[in-house]
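Because discrete structure vocabularies remain unfamiliar, it helps to consider an illustrative case, giving the amino acid sequence and backbone structure tokens:
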Amino acid sequence: MPEITDYTLSLERSRNSLTRADRPRTFTLAGREWDLLDGVFAPPFSASTGAAMELLGLAGTDLRPWHGSFLEVGCGTGVIALSAALAGCDRVTALDISPQAVRNTAANADRHGLAERVRVLHSDLFDALAPEDRYDTVYWHSNFVLAPDSYRYKSDHERAYVDPGYRAHQRFLIDAPAHVAAGGRILLHFSNRGDVRALHALGHRCGRRLREAAALPVGEGTDEVRHLLYEITVTD
């Protein structure tokens, strides 16, 4: 298995992120300061959150206004969901399976004066939503590294790094269309740390088309990781 996609290295990064002596209590990203709680995915130790901001047009010179409603699956510290609200989305919901991540996003909503505008829910993918909950944009920065189907998580933190058997990806592909508004879009952040061919094959089996909407190469040490933003639609 190529080193860049080796799930054991991703799990090692997960463990190291939790115990590093330089793990901060706050960090700066996209010109704003954010709280970071123990046990939550740490954007300062990974380029992926910054890449997501660039792909979505929420950072840097590509900053553009957003409108309508926004749903984020797997919100972590809340940087993406809260940035969407700050960019103009009038209804934002942030979901995470980790209770600590829910607390972290809520803390950052308070920090940026968004507690009344952003709903934060503890949820395994879409489970906490009502059937009628629909959004103009449904977004997931997925745990794109493929782990063996037999792997069992040892912490919620590992869920941010690997997906055994792409079970979560399958659920997302199947369930996301039920929560997108008419004329809305479903966006999936992936990368070549994951198995791109397996993702497309899974999409085909689920009756979904994956169109590459944007891509961003990011250097990480000696590797170049290609971050991908897919738009997902239901095939005819």
